[in-house]
Q: What sequence folds into this?
């Protein structure tokens, strides 16, 4: 039997605000345990929350970037449950009046896993249900016979993005998260690094036989700590559920935990163990009127990856593929634009970035901001090639040297004495010398074997130690041999 | 006259005129506490050493604020750095505050000296101070009777001349009712007038901090210090704070005073009703116009209150879990057991009752029937007052239907106890202000007149209260201790 999969995601994103959501503590990753806390975020008796407007604005900005409706009025609610890492034993969240509603994310082809990109045909939009704002909890550390809690993270602003069940495969989930992450980086609202916990993703997944109308049993999986981890966990879970269904087993609504080391999921809790969160409106906070500043936030919406892609194709004449690859990384886009602004050959730069730079950066496990080659130097290299100062083979050599040493291309060309000879007098001398030494080939060419001229070009290049401009050599030889 | 019998205004004036020192004031109150508090038990802790040291400092420094060197007592649910803040609960038995409540900071900045922490019903849940997990407080007018609650310690301390004034908190009448039955003045400001930051929350949408004093002038003086918007409490109001003592200069001629027919009903002590009606007649004599009004949803107030207050309390008190501070039970099996044991052993019966009630009304499947309906009823109650204040400038009622009852008399019936607040609860639900002041004695016990004003109407109620107080001498009566 054939099965189809339905996936919906709940993505938690830590906002890059200066301070926490409801107090003045710094919002920073990696301080000494319990060094970034105050009575408010520790939930001491008598404290009250005071909302961080920057966080509310950032969430609204995210909503605008993702095509959401921004509620003119929204409110906070208390979500009640006991856990040691939650200081008040309730979390301030948003229940029935979230800040952003609806919206969607159009999956970028370049954001799919590399091995799956060839299978992507039509473009797809994953619809969003809502985005709301809440406070993060602390972190538990389990020791041999005790548990400690670090409250540095407690009270930091957290945005929850909830999708509709529009995702059909692990690869689409991967593409959604990559596309979303890219947009969040464009908006500078989060660093959205899953490995640092800045972006966390819970997946709701159900599998049903093709043709069945109602959805299969919903199973939630948690604890994936990378985008590829999400893909692997979903792939595992689909396989597990299909196998179970094929055996005639009935699925149970439950929450499962992904174990990255073994590549499997196991039961965390069943529906019967689910919490009753007893949501009610947070009486300590007034409703928020977003209309006061929404226009200001709207002005701050940045150029999004999809728009930038179109612009690079139109203004810079990039191929769709190159433009897609370049905008799929905010910093790579900046790198390209910095280089292209100093050159007439945007395509040459794009090719060099997409084919060579990304390959070498990948091999060196470096990000584009750590690139040893500065954008201006990359542009200079393209100029050298375009102007015929060096040939393409030499360009590759210079590029490799630049990546190794960070030196400027001109310096390398001079050091290696590889400046291409485009001086027609010098080239004529080389040609005459080679013609004199290869009478037989000269005769062949004159006798009508035009292809034999290639052999002469090769000889000239050899004689010039590769510095002669091959196009000019070709021209000069043709002239001299009158072909 | 002994120094301990002074009012806040007298103490502040005397200090300014150097008639006595702050040290002398504090010493006289410490002596008084030593003499009477073993019988009244108004305080949970007395910081004599700290207060005397602070008084010396105040004497040695130039006057900075209106309360420079004036001693004040604090209800034990207000955070003051370095002081205990037990909320009269075992779960916070050894807790020491790490920060100042905004109200406390304002008093400190005005120059006040803190004497100690007054007894209360545990987490402000009760009307008699019998729910204190440490000991009950005794009414200075009759030590066998309750002083009211939950700010019973504050009211008893003021009535017994153990302090000139004390702060209380009022969620459903917890300032006004103890002031009434202990013979003091108690004022609950409009919701949002005084920052709640640092007041250990019982019911966030109802709680307000206010003064308990010996007369109306003192209430106005303290209000001047306490009020004002606070960035730490986003529910605090941005409205400007007037000089409330200016309102005391005006008489009541031309004011319209409303008498809600729903507040004069069967079950009320006839002597109490008689005294309240006499007070109304006095104000009429002074030129106020008396109008009958209706607050049709009065009957729903108690039920509405016990749904909303307990719902909010169930979340507010969740933080007392034995993990970060306060009482932690020994030898738990696991985290859930740690919570269960710490809370079972740390909270008293009434607190547990209300947490369970609040948890229930918010539970899935019951939310609409209880919490949502209560919110709708609350809107109706608020509207009742808005309509009433179109016809009058202030509303006159009894504060409590009876005088103070005997200790132990109602502890077996929580419902009977809840009814002690029937006249005070609606003001919290509506968010309006109210004051209680002495208007006579029934069965030799003090009776309180309640004056309710519209939102931000503190000046109106102070004006009426002061006019009445000036014409009578009830507030000058002292218990024989």
A:
């Amino acid at each position: 039997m054939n099965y189809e999969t339905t996936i919906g995601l709940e993505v938690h994103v830590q906002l890059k605000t200066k301070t926490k959501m409801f107090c003045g503590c710094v919002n920073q990753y990696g301080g000494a345990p319990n060094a970034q806390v105050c009575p408010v975020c520790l939930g001491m008796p008598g404290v009250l929350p005071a909302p961080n407007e920057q966080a509310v604005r950032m969430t609204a900005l995210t909503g605008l970037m993702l095509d959401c409706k921004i509620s003119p009025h929204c409110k906070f609610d208390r979500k009640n449950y006991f856990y040691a890492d939650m200081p008040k034993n309730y979390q301030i969240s948003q229940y029935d009046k979230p800040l952003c509603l609806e919206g969607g994310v159009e999956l970028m082809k370049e954001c799919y896993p590399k091995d799956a990109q060839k299978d992507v045909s039509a473009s797809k939009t994953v619809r969003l249900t809502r985005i709301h704002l809440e406070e993060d909890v602390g972190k538990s550390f389990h020791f041999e016979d005790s548990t400690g809690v670090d409250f540095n993270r407690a009270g930091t602003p957290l945005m929850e993005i909830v999708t509709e069940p529009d995702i059909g495969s692990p690869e689409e989930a991967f593409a959604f998260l990559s596309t979303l992450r890219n947009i969040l980086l464009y908006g500078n609202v989060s660093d959205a690094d899953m490995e640092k916990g800045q972006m966390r993703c819970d997946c709701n997944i159900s599998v049903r036989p093709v043709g069945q109308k109602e959805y299969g049993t919903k199973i939630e999986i948690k604890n994936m700590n990378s985008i590829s981890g999400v893909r692997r966990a979903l792939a595992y879970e689909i396989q597990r559920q299909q196998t179970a269904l094929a055996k005639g087993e009935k699925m149970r609504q439950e929450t499962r935990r992904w174990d990255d080391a073994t590549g499997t999921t196991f039961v965390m809790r069943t529906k019967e163990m689910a919490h009753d969160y007893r949501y009610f409106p947070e009486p300590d906070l007034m409703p928020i009127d977003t209309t006061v500043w929404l226009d200001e936030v709207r002005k701050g919406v940045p150029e999004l990856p999809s728009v930038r892609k179109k612009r690079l194709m139109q203004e810079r004449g990039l191929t769709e593929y190159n433009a897609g690859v370049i905008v799929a990384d905010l910093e790579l886009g900046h790198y390209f634009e910095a280089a292209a602004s100093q050159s007439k050959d945007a395509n040459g730069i794009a090719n060099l970035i997409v084919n060579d730079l990304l390959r070498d950066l990948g091999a060196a496990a470096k990000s584009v901001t750590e690139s040893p080659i500065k954008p201006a130097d990359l542009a200079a290299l393209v100029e050298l090639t375009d102007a015929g100062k060096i040939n393409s083979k030499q360009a590759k050599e210079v590029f490799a040297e630049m990546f190794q040493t960070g030196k400027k291309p001109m310096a390398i060309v001079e050091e290696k004495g590889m400046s291409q000879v485009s001086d027609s007098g010098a080239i004529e001398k080389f040609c005459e010398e080679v013609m004199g030494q290869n009478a037989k080939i000269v005769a062949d060419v004159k006798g009508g074997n035009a292809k034999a001229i290639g052999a002469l070009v090769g000889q000239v290049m050899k004689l010039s130690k590769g510095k002669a401009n091959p196009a000019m050599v070709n021209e000069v030889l043709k002239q001299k041999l009158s072909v | 006259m002994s120094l301990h019998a002074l009012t806040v205004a007298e103490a502040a004036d005397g200090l300014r005129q150097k008639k006595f020192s702050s040290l002398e004031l504090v010493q006289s109150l410490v002596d008084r506490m030593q003499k009477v508090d073993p019988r009244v038990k108004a305080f949970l802790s007395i910081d004599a050493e700290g207060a005397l040291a602070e008084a010396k400092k105040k004497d040695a420094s130039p006057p900075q604020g209106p309360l420079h060197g004036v001693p004040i007592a604090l209800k034990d649910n207000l955070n003051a750095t370095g002081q205990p803040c037990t909320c009269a609960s075992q779960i916070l038995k050894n807790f020491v505050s790490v920060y100042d409540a905004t109200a406390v900071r304002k008093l400190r900045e005005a120059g006040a000296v803190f004497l100690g922490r007054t007894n209360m019903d545990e987490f402000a849940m009760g009307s008699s101070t019998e729910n204190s997990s440490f000991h009950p407080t005794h009414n200075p007018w009759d030590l066998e009777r309750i002083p009211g609650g939950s700010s019973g310690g504050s009211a008893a301390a003021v009535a017994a001349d153990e302090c000139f004034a004390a702060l209380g908190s009022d969620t459903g009448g917890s300032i006004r009712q103890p002031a009434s039955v202990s013979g003091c003045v108690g004022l609950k400001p409009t919701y949002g007038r005084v920052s709640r930051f640092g007041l250990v929350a019982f019911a966030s949408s109802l709680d307000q901090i206010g003064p308990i004093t010996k007369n109306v002038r003192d209430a106005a003086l303290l209000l001047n210090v306490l009020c004002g918007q606070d960035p730490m409490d986003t529910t605090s109001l941005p409205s400007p704070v007037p000089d409330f003592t200016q309102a005391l200069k005006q008489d009541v001629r031309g004011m319209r005073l409303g008498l809600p027919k729903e507040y004069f009903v069967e079950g009320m002590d006839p002597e109490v009703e008689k005294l309240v009606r006499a007070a109304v007649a006095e104000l009429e004599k002074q030129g106020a116009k008396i109008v009958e009004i209706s607050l049709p949803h009065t009957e729903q107030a108690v039920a509405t209150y016990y749904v909303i207050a307990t719902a909010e309390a169930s979340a507010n008190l969740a933080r007392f879990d034995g993990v970060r501070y306060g009482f932690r039970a020994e030898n738990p099996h696991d985290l859930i057991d740690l919570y269960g044991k710490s809370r079972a052993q740390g909270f008293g019966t009434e607190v547990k009752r209300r947490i369970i009630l609040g948890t229930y009304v918010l539970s899935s499947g019951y939310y609409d029937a209880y919490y949502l309906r209560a919110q709708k009823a609350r809107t109706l109650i608020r509207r009742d007052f808005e309509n009433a204040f179109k016809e009058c400038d202030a509303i006159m009622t009894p504060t409590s239907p009876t005088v103070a009852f005997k200790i132990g008399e109602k502890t077996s019936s929580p419902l009977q106890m809840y009814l002690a607040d029937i006249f005070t609860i609606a003001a919290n639900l509506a968010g309006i202000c109210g004051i209680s002041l002495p208007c006579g004695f029934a069965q030799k016990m003090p009776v309180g007149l309640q004056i309710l004003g519209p939102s931000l109407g503190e000046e109106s109620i102070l004006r009426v209260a002061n006019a009445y107080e000036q014409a009578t001498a009830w507030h000058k009566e002292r218990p024989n201790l």
Observations:
- The CA atoms of residues 3 and 209 of chain A lie 4 Å apart.
- Residues 3-297 of chain A form one domain.
- The two ends of chain A are 69 Å apart (CA to CA).
